[in-house]
Design goal:
Elements: E1 2-8, E2 14-19, H1 21-26, E3 39-42
Antiparallel strand pairs: 1-2, 1-3
């Protein structure tokens, strides 16, 4: 399961959906506010945090 971030082109809202990769491939995501299907996935930055042992 993963969190996918979206932006609605119709109302400008950003929102997240929690779904599996299989669901994401088949998903027809709609904005939870205006119900528009004009949504685009937003790619958030990713970083890994590690602990350096000395």
């Amino acid at each position: 399961m993963a969190v996918f971030e979206y932006h609605c082109a119709a109302c400008g809202r950003n929102f997240e959906r929690f779904m599996s990769l299989a669901e994401h491939e088949q998903a027809k995501v709609k904005c939870p506010d205006c119900k528009s299907a004009k949504v685009e996935q937003v790619f958030a930055p990713f970083y890994a945090k590690t602990i350096r042992k000395s």
